[in-house]
Structures are given as structure tokens and as C-alpha cells.
Amino acid sequence: MADVLVLGGTGRTGRGVADALARDGLQVVLVGRDGNRLREAAGGHGHRTLVAAGVREVADTVRAVRPAVVVNTVGPFTATAGPVVDACLAAGSDYVDLANDLAAVSRLLARHAEAERAGRTLVTGAGFGVAATEGVVVRLCRDGARTGRRAERVRVDMVPSLALQAGRLGDALAGTLVEGLPGVPGGRRFQGRRFAGGRLVAAPVGGAPRALVTPDGDRVVTASMPLGELLAAHRASGAPFVEAASSEVPTGALARIALPPAANLLAVGPLRRFAARRLAAVEFRARSAPRVSSWGHAHVRWQDGTSAEGWSRLPEAQAATVAVCAETTRRLARGEGRPGARTPVASFGPELITSVGGEFVDGPSRPDARVDVGGGRGRR
């Protein structure tokens, strides 16, 4: 019996997770569509490989192998997670994925009771963005609870520092970007979302821009983006008003004008498929990480009108994703998971961040008048 199946074993993240787990002595099997690429990815690490051409074959492989844990790195997760989770629950395997879109994350979390009945653990969002922001929210709300304060409003900001390898964006990531926006109730299919009065409501993609200065002194602007961090922050805080933002969202005047109609066009099936194909074909040049650290940020306003703010520091975003996913998988393989469906920090506490070399930094961002928010102003 294999300890871990890694789906998408030829990808950058899949290879990184597999190698990290193998160094701990876990038996890892790489699963993918191309046997030659799988053997190349396995390299000198001794990983076994299995070829599975599509999600049905992957699910059949899970049922046949019955691993302790399945790691899913293959998007779009709205298409791949459901059949793979079905197979995991049947095979008695725990499950981890890297989903960070509202549709996929919400669908996985909705299977909590089913996973509890099966005695299995499902973890979604096991990457940089969800874990980095969720960890800060949990710490702030724990501190608030000690003094009897309850969260009223929460904003989380994802500030990745991402090094790019030369190559194409690829079908899986393009599909995740297009199909995962946002696929949940509360507004039109390709609008943004936020929580208001405890319910998901429509919000503009790229709205509510906010200037931040990280504890390292880096100046960034974040804006609204309907990502998995939104659900994780809402569940962690219980706050009725929650919004999530990212520094990767364009915030200039032209972007604020263009994003809403562009999102509306995605509702047209042929245009959406065309957009996915074009995105998949985009070629990236290699680029070093723009900052020393990646950051998760959260600001919590309590019901008594006071507030708290904090950060989590992690390394380059891809390396952080590999580390979070590998550590989550490692703990599940050791039998430390609780039955049910959760996000990473909800599963293992904010100590998950420090266990992968991250750290928490208390206190607010440093105000700096030189940071341009493009004429917008976020809600505080």
C-alpha cells in the first residue's frame, strides 16, 4: 500500500510535494497522463509512477491502490475534486488539494458530514493563500476571545512573492482561473463576493483597493478577489462582514473599468472556453521573486469598535505552497487528522504556519502616503 498518491506528479508543485514527503521516508506514487514525463519527474527519488489519462482513471487508481493520503494538484478543482474525493471515501484515504477558488473550496467543505461519517479527513486550500491569511485570523480571534470580544468585520489580504519559471500557463491553471469565478450563491456567475450580514453577496472584482506596507517595508496595493481565503476567514472568525483581497489584482483606473464587463463576458460559454484556451497558451518569462517574503494579512474590527491587525510571513509563494501542502499531507499520513472537511489551519491550528518556517508578526501595516491606491478607498 502506498503512503501517498500525488495527482499531477509532473507539475512543479506535485514534484516538490512528492520530493519533500520522500525525504521523510514516505512511499510516494506520482500519477499523471504522460508516462515519460512521470518517469522524468520521478528522477532519482525512487518514486513509483502510474499513468491515468483522465479523472475517472485517477479515481479508479485511488480505489485500487488505497493510499493513506491522496494529494490533488490538478485543476480545475471544480472538475477533479468531486470524483477523487468519492474514491477516497470509498478507499479509506484522506485527501488534500490546492484549490483556492470559491466554487471548489465551498464544495469540498460542504462534504464535512459525509467525511465525518466515513471517518476520513478532507483538507482543501492547502497552499500559500488560504493558510497564510487563515492563520492570522485564527490568532487574532483567539486573542479577542480571551477578552470576550467578537469579530464584526474582517478583511484578509494575500500578498504573494512569486518566482516564475519560463513556460506556458497551461490548461489546468487556466481552467481553474476561469471556471472558479466564483460559482457560488450571492450574485452573478462571474461576479466577486464578500460576506455581508453573514451571507455571500455580490462584490466587484478589483474593488475596495487598499494600500499596505508590509513589516519589511514593501509597498503593495490589494483589491477584492473572490478566493478561498474569503470562506476560510469567515469560518475562522464568525464575523458577519468579511472581504478578501489580493495584491495580484490589477488596481489601476483602466482595470477598474475593464474588469466588470470582462467578467460578464465569461458567462457566455463559447467566450469562456475561448478565454481559457488563450490563457492556457500564455507564455511566461522566468522572473525572480519580487520581494523577500510572501505575506498574509488580516484586519479584524471587534463588535466593541476596537480593532486588531497582524501578518504572517512565509517564503516565496510557490515554495510556501509546497511546504504547506507537504506538511498537511505528512500530518495526515501520521494519523493526526480529524474526520471532516476543513481548510489547513482549521485542521491543524496556526502552528501549521510556524512548522513550515513561517512566522507571525503582530501589529498594523505602516501607513505610507506614497502608496497609490488608484483613486479607490477600502472599507475599514
Quick overview of this protein structure:
With 380 residues, this protein is an alpha/beta fold.
Give the tags.
alpha/beta; seven-stranded mixed beta sheet; Rossmann fold; 2 domains; seven-stranded parallel beta sheet; 14 helices; 380 residues
Structural features, described:
The chain is of the alpha/beta class. The protein has two domains: 4-127 and 318-355, NAD(P)-binding Rossmann-like Domain (Rossmann fold, 3-Layer(aba) Sandwich); 129-317, Dihydrodipicolinate Reductase, domain 2, CATH 3.30.360. The protein is 40% helix and 23% strand. It has a seven-stranded parallel β-sheet with strand order 3-2-1-4-5-6-17, sandwiched between helices. Strands 11-12-13-7-15-16-18 form a seven-stranded mixed β-sheet. Strands 8-14 form a two-stranded antiparallel ribbon. Helix 1 (12-23) packs across helix 12 (317-333), helix 4 runs parallel beside helix 5 (102-109) and helix 5 (102-109) crosses helix 9. The longest helix has 19 residues, at 128-146. The chain is globular, with a radius of gyration of 20 Å. The protein starts with a strand and ends in an 18-residue tail after the last strand. The model is unreliable at 366-380 (pLDDT under 50). InterPro entries: NAD(P)-bd_dom_sf (IPR036291), Sacchrp_dh_NADP-bd (IPR005097). Residues 357-380 are annotated as: Disordered.
